[in-house]
Write a structure and sequence with these properties.
The chain is an all-alpha fold. It is built from 20 helices and three strands. The chain starts with a helix and ends in an 11-residue tail after the last strand.
Length: about 400
């Protein structure tokens, strides 16, 4: 009941306007007061009998063209409540009416398209949105609906076409979105082994957004697979400068390249990156290389310095792991305490989100270029460990 009361607010606003208008008309023009059936319909809604309410409001709309606003509000209410079949029924009845004004019919078409999208009937929604675009009514919202459909269907070339039209219509650049559509096409080309097409798509991505980090990363990987290791390293370094927060994503590739080279070069590269862009994945990778080159105690010293400045559970877990053999000679309670600490840290770390959307707060265990929740592109960032103030340390 409480849920219905909140959801009825839009309907109450529309119906209040309608009742007021009808009341005014009855004084000035001698028309009758609002049909009692209207109030019966509201009672059915409050009694959680929506199908009976729908029947009453549909019949009411047949004899009173001004009741269309109530139907629109009712349909939107059902869709927000998750009752898509009822929303479709309400909006279909509106679209089918012959005496409905052009603007109201266009709005009903848009609402019906939203219903179809919610129901997963993308082909029907697409048809309605295209009809609205052709009629030049609610064109911006219809194009946005088409863009959402094509994104879900991964029709990236159609996304590009719609985005271009939206840019012209709104006068607002969409370089960020367009660059990601080109990157999606590049990844499709790479899966098919068409490196030439992938390279052209990546150039188009940079033309749309010169700062597109994803395109630079893909170019680096393309160079790496083609054996152009120096170019790949240069591009990965550019990514590190351009967007230090994505360093954990490119680190495995950098390690793969440098494993084919002397260990000293890898150590120098990681130390350079660590000085400029400290992060847990970098500290862990550097500690592994330092352990191989300089021994366990040097790796421990490196991690101690890092965790003294960063409240990072991954680095702390690795530090406890490296330190455990040094406690083996003590045994007894010290070792038990140490292992208990490792278990607690591992549990806490395993439940930590690695990424979070800076627009809606959606959390994830892996990087998504488009947020699954708010659908923004490039909004998901790695979660950074909080810094520890020196005074506390």
């Amino acid at each position: 009941m409480i849920e219905w009361l909140f959801l009825l607010l839009p309907l109450a606003a529309a119906s209040g306007w309608w009742v007021a208008k009808r009341g005014t008309a009855s004084v000035d023009g001698g028309k009758s007061v609002p049909d009692p059936a209207y109030f019966h319909g509201l009672n059915y809604l409050l009694d959680d009998q929506p199908d009976k309410a729908i029947d009453i409001f549909l019949k009411l709309a047949e004899v009173d063209s001004e009741a269309a606003e109530i139907q629109l509000a009712l349909g939107g209410l059902f869709r927000r409540r998750g009752e898509v079949d009822r929303a479709i029924r309400v909006h279909q009845s509106l679209v089918a009416r012959q005496n409905l004004g052009k603007q109201l019919r266009a709005f009903a078409l848009y609402e019906l398209g939203q219903d179809y999208m919610r129901a997963g009937l993308f082909d029907r929604a697409e048809s309605l949105f295209n009809e609205l675009v052709e009629s030049k009514l609610h064109r911006r919202r219809a194009l946005e609906g088409l863009l959402e459909i094509y994104q879900q269907e991964r029709e990236w070339r159609r996304c590009l076409e719609v985005a271009d039209r939206l840019q012209v219509l709104n006068g607002t650049p969409m370089g960020n979105e367009i660059s990601h559509y080109h990157c999606e096409l590049a990844e499709e080309a790479l899966r098919k082994g068409d490196d030439g097409l992938a390279e052209r798509c990546l150039h188009a991505a940079h033309a749309a957004d010169a700062g597109c980090v994803r395109a630079t990363m893909l170019q680096a990987r393309l160079s790496m697979e083609g054996g152009e290791l120096e170019r790949a390293i240069a591009l990965f370094r550019h990514v590190a400068v351009q967007a230090p927060h994505v360093l954990p994503e490119i680190l495995p590739d950098l390690l793969d390249i440098h494993r084919q080279r002397p260990r000293e070069e890898l150590l120098d590269e990681l130390r350079l990156l660590d000085r400029e862009h400290a992060s847990a994945p970098l500290a862990l990778a550097l500690s592994d290389v330092v352990q191989q080159a300089e021994g366990r105690e040097a790796a421990i010293a490196l991690l101690v310095e890092y965790v003294n400045g960063h409240a990072d559970l991954a680095a702390l877990e690795r530090l406890l792991e490296l330190n455990e053999p040094l406690l083996a000679c003590d045994g007894g309670q010290s070792m038990s305490v140490h292992r208990a600490m490792r278990r607690v840290v591992h549990h806490l770390r395993s439940n930590q989100p690695r990424y979070q959307c800076d627009q809606c707060g959606f959390v994830a265990r892996r990087l998504h270029w488009q947020c699954p929740s708010c659908k923004r592109w490039g909004s998901i960032q790695p979660v950074q460990p909080p810094l520890i103030e020196k005074s506390v340390a």
